[in-house]
Write a structure and sequence with these properties.
- Helices cover 31% and strands 25% of the residues.
- The chain has 10 helices and 21 strands.
- The strands form 6 sheets. Strands 8-7-9-10-21-20-18 form a 7-stranded mixed β-sheet, covered by helices on one side.
- Helix 2 runs parallel beside helix 5.
- The protein starts with a helix and ends with a helix.
Length: 532
């Protein structure tokens, strides 16, 4: 009878402990739902909203609805993507403090909803699914619609979570300001055609900015409402267009001057000098574009054919800017790890009154120059000349108020004889602070080089900062760091293999046996105490 009562007490004690633990877990879940808290221990805080996104969300005065249309019957491999999207949007919901509502819906479950979603601009996407050794085609929805007041922004197809925070934050920003920034490219065709060799940059910018192009051969003015003018190594521009660029800067316009100094023949690997009639204009603002190409011991490797053999060799004409070469106090570059600039020209910075110059990117201290006749063959020995090994500026930011290249002497005519400038004293100097970015390189934006580490991030960070200020800067630069496993020897591999197959189960069995022994020992001691 006594043993039976003791068993009841033990069982009751265990049941009570289990109920207490379950109640504690329920309480924790309830409190965590009401008061969201999560620790992101990753080095770059990739699972936490950036400060830029938090600032944007904090400005909301009315609710934003984020509708995520994601098919439940999507291929299994998209399950991770759905979870990543859900986690990120949950961060927005919590940061919004009641001003952001997140809704997940499957349009395939409701024909009326499916029709409405397709009219919004979220299409069904065909995907190949491999199940039971068979390939099948299925249609899925993977889009997001953001609604604010009577306006909407559409992300029609979310294929990865890598840039989703930037896409969502920029969409919210456009909803708040109800506008797209206007970016104008001044560039020619051929090698610099935006729809072909520079198509990737255009595709990235197009959903976020209002893009247009000026033909340097015929254009004579910068369109009204231009937020950023990007001069991409045009053929020699007319004097009237040159004057229009200067006037745009004097009115507070922002400009990128991305100028290649050489023409490259990829077939023969030869280079020749290239001019665009803007060198003196840029020099008047504070940066001289030299004709000297920068070579560097820190560089990218290229594939080089010699006879029937293809070799991969380091190529000094592709200098690679590493973290130490970036300006630490500028948001365009202070989070970048790399930038690769093919056949880049060195820059010479000249101080100008009321203008602050910042070298955003420079070569490593192991750089040197090639002057005069260009020999760009990968087959040569890259031996730097003595006494010229040092770091060279590759990207310079100018900020402040600039003197006009066509500034007027007192009572005189405008340089170049443009009637629009006569007697216009406002053209002598820009009347408000503005920004100019100068690089002796434009090819790093081409489709052949934009995928190199850091190239897209650098350019898009610069565009964001010039147009939106600090609102979006820093989001793109968040990235997952690679943490590969070390290379293991055969012996180490066997240890890992059999340690998982045999060692882990043995540890579990041993822990269970120790636990069982201790419980039995405690019971014997308890019974012995009761009998005494």
């Amino acid at each position: 009878m006594r043993n039976w009562r003791q068993q009841i007490r033990f069982l009751f004690g265990d049941a009570t402990l289990i109920l207490v633990v379950l109640g504690f877990l329920v309480l924790i879940n309830f409190l965590s739902y009401r008061h969201f808290l999560r620790f992101d221990l990753t080095e770059n805080r990739i699972y936490t909203l950036s400060e830029s996104s938090r600032r944007i969300v904090s400005r909301l005065e009315d609710p934003v609805t984020i509708q995520c249309f994601f098919s439940k019957k999507a291929p299994p491999e998209l399950g991770v993507l759905r979870q990543q999207i859900s986690d990120l949007l949950e961060e927005y919901r919590v940061s919004g403090k009641g001003k952001i509502r997140v809704i997940f819906s499957d349009p395939a479950e409701d024909p009326l909803l499916q029709k409405r979603v397709e009219l919004m601009g979220v299409p069904q996407v065909q995907m190949n699914v491999y199940q039971k050794d068979q390939a099948q085609i299925t249609n899925v929805f993977m889009g997001i619609v953001l609604s604010y007041e009577d306006r909407q922004e559409i992300l029609p197809f979310v294929k990865e979570a890598k840039n989703l925070e930037y896409d969502v934050s920029s969409a919210i920003l456009r909803l708040l300001r109800n506008q797209k920034k206007r970016v104008v490219f001044l560039t020619g065709g051929g090698e610099y055609d935006l729809n072909e060799n520079f198509g990737t940059v255009r595709e990235i910018l197009e959903p976020l900015y209002d893009l247009s192009r000026l033909d340097p051969a015929v254009a004579g003015s910068v369109p009204e409402g231009t937020d950023l003018l990007i001069v991409v190594s045009p053929e020699p521009v007319t004097e009237r267009m040159k004057f229009a660029i200067d006037r745009y800067v004097m009115q507070g316009g922002k400009v990128f001057f991305l100028i290649d100094r050489v023409n490259i023949d990829g077939g023969t690997m030869t280079a020749s000098r290239r001019d665009c009639n803007l060198e003196d204009l840029i020099a008047s603002y504070g940066v001289k574009l030299t004709q000297d190409l920068v070579l560097d011991r820190f560089n990218l490797a290229i594939n080089f054919r010699t006879g029937y053999t293809i070799l991969r060799v380091p190529y000094a004409f592709y200098p690679k800017v590493v973290k130490e070469g970036f300006a630490t106090d500028n948001p365009i570059v202070n989070r970048l790890d790399a930038l690769s600039l093919p056949w880049a020209a060195a820059l010479d910075v000249t101080n100008r009154p009321a203008v602050k110059s910042t070298i955003l990117a420079r070569s490593s201290p192991h750089g040197w120059l090639q002057r005069g006749m260009y020999n760009i063959s990968p087959a040569q020995e890259f031996n730097p000349p003595q006494g010229e090994i040092k770091s060279y500026p590759l990207a310079v930011l100018l900020e402040g108020r600039f003197d006009s290249f066509y500034r007027l002497p007192s009572g005189g005519d405008a340089s170049g004889g443009f009637p629009a400038a006569q007697g216009d004293g406002r053209l002598a100097r820009s009347q408000k602070d503005t920004k100019i970015l100068v690089m002796g390189n434009a090819r790093f934006l081409s489709d052949a080089f934009i995928s190199a580490p850091g190239n897209a991030d650098f350019f898009l960070n610069a565009v964001d900062w010039f147009t939106w200020g600090d609102d979006l800067i820093g989001i793109r630069s968040k990235k997952m760091l690679s943490r590969p496993l070390p290379i293991l020897t055969d012996r180490q591999k066997r240890l890992v293999k059999y340690g998982n197959m045999i060692g882990v189960p043995l540890v579990v069995i041993l822990a269970g046996a120790v636990r069982f022994y201790l419980r039995q020992r405690r019971r014997r001691i308890y019974r012995k105490g009761k009998t005494e």
